[in-house]
Amino acid sequence: MDAEKLIRIAKGEELADVVIKNANLVNVFNDEIKKTDIAIYKGRIAGLGLGYKGQKEIDVNGSYVTPSFIDGHVHIESSMCTPKEFAKAVVPEGTVTVMADPHEISNVFGLHGISYMRAACMNLPLQVYIMLPSCVPATDSETSGFELASYDLSLLMDDPAILGVAEMMNFPGVLSCDKEVMSKLKLGLAKRKKIDGHAPGLSGKNLCAYVAAGVMSDHECTTPEEATEKLGLGMYIMIREGSAAKDLQPLIPVLKGKNTRRCIFVTDDRHPTDLKGHINDMVRQAVEAGVDPITAIKVASINTAEYFGLTDLGAIAPGYRANMLVFDNLKDFKPKLVFKGGEIVAENGKLIVDLEHNEMPKLRGSVNVKWIEAEDFKIPAKSDTVTAMQIVPGTLLTKSIKAKVKVVDGYAESDVDNDLLKIMVFERHKATGNIGKGFVKGFGLKSGAIASTVAHDSHNMIVVGTNDADMQMAATELVKTQGGKVVVNNGKVVSILPLPIAGLMSDQPFETVLQQCHDLKDGVKQIGCNLEDPFMTMAFLSLSVIPDIKITDKGVFDVNAFKFIDIFDTETATV
After folding, report:
1. Crossing angle (nearest 10°) for helices 83-90 and 111-120
2. Phi and psi at residue 318, in whole multiples of 5°?
């Protein structure tokens, strides 16, 4: 960039490349809205003020102009779309920058998975920064496709697109000063990069220790009290609104409080059905709940940029990148125009730029399981009482409950009448033959089975069902498609979404994936499930770092005690 020319344009002595005329600018620095022109040169803001002239002039006739929005923590793989298709969905909604954690694909393919995502994010109208996965695998309570040590992360840390170390889920490892955990923290700190946190319910002196170790943010707050304590210790609070975990409404009181400059909006994990309406929808919901519109816009832009040290993003001011949104009003937050680098990339909800073809790294098949037999679905009954998982709708939490189980010919079976269903996790990376077996309450299935290769964090194959035959068929279908999600009933496939890329992402356009998601939703309703998003809920039932009880390919895991349990006898050895 010609710095001298930038100065002359800012002074009004030369024509800008583009001038946005008659804008009601939302200023995130002084919380004012002021009518102005916006002069742009080489993708950056040259100046603000009335009377600028440009080679191209766009009159927005008093519309509101804000910084474009930033998602502070997202797993793109959870959209089940490639980054290109993800961009097609979120950029028209006003999200122009994301901080991606390729944790999911890393659990399947390790560094090769990160390389795949890095290549897939090139030349998009979406700016993708990457936080390196800190917990692959999250714990040794499950079998992952790969393990990433601090040395592996060090090979990538100097890349300017890498902003730091992603969510440190293994907070027990931090508190116990685990050698490998500490080496990852030290790597991020030595490079002066961010370390994101993941510490649901952590409080008091243990929280102080976690923060003192260098962890700077958290996206697991579910109550104002938890968020306030963490804010008071200097953490940034990533307010999450995902497909399964919806924390925005409970945390609205925080956004009405005093310390909102350390609040950030994130989506974490969202299905395709929740991408039409992204960070902009969180802004809208916050404003509808009584949050000041400028505050909500700052949480979606400048706060995030400042946390990650992106000093030229998140605001409309001289020297900043010209990433901007144009709104008719500050109520519905549907952008009329989306600018990236001073160019219009989306208009009235549609992407208007052509997406370049990226040559992608090759990936092998990832669903490698030992031959699945009918016997694999049997659970010998040691008694008529089991420790089961109880779903808590709208959160990632589960409750550990005691439940009476139906026993037939010496085997524990699903009990549809009492909504107590079999759940199994098949190891799918190394064909070890590991199968975790347990029971879950809350799905409401009246018949059939559902299965998925999206199962956080190691993404083994998870199956829930009312009968063994349909469970076996569901699992077998996903082996055939090399990953995906499926609904089976009475020996027939009701609906299926193939996910051949790492068992996590489709190779089809966003619109196709969206329709297949709707088909899955209709399919689970047909067999009695009334959860809002049963596949997303199921995907987190294997996440053995979130209380109270989860299931992995190694068995049923008590997260609070950090040990495996016999579902018929909870007194067993630790991990």
Report:
1. 50
2. -55, 130
Tell the residue number behind the tokens 């992402």, with chain if given: 505
Contacts of 30 (CB under 8 A, 6+ apart): none
Distance in Å from the first CA to the final CA of the chain: 57
The architecture in CATH of the region 68-310 reads Alpha-Beta Barrel (3.20)
Q: In whole angstroms, what is the distance from residue 381 CA to residue 378 CA?
A: 9
CA–CA gap between residue 439 and residue 420 (Å, rounded): 6
Domain ranges, ordered by start, for the chain? 68-310, 374-565
Among candidate residues 246, 218, 248, the one with its CA nearest the CA of residue 233: 218
Tokens in use for 208? Answer: 């102080």
Using one digit for the tens of pLDDT, what is the confidence trace for 249-272?
Answer: 999 999 999 889 999 999 999 989
Pairing of strands 398-404, 420-426: unpaired
Site of tokens 């950056």: 44
Residue 571, pLDDT > 60, answer: no
Structure tokens at 453: 């290769």
Q: Measure the CA–CA gap between 250 and 359, rounded to whole angstroms.
A: 43
Per residue in 302-328, pLDDT (tens digit) is 999 999 999 999 999 999 999 999 999
CA distance 294 to 317: 16
The predicted structure's pLDDT at residue 572: 43
pLDDT in the model for residue 357: 74
pLDDT, the chain, mean: 95
Contact 73, 53 (CB under 8 A): no
What are the C-alpha distances in Å from 366 to residues 241, 429, 449? 29, 6, 22
Q: Is the peptide bond before 137 cis (omega within 30 degrees of 0)?
A: yes
Q: What percent of the chain has pLDDT over 90?
A: 89
Burial tier of 265 (Cβ tally within 10 Å: 0-12, 13-18, 19+): buried
The DSSP secondary-structure symbol of 321 reads: B
Distance between CA atoms of residues 469 and 471, nearest Å:
5
Where would I find the beta strands (DSSP E) of 82-214? 95-100, 127-132, 162-168, 194-197
Range with lowest mean pLDDT among 138-142, 208-212, 401-405, 551-555: 138-142
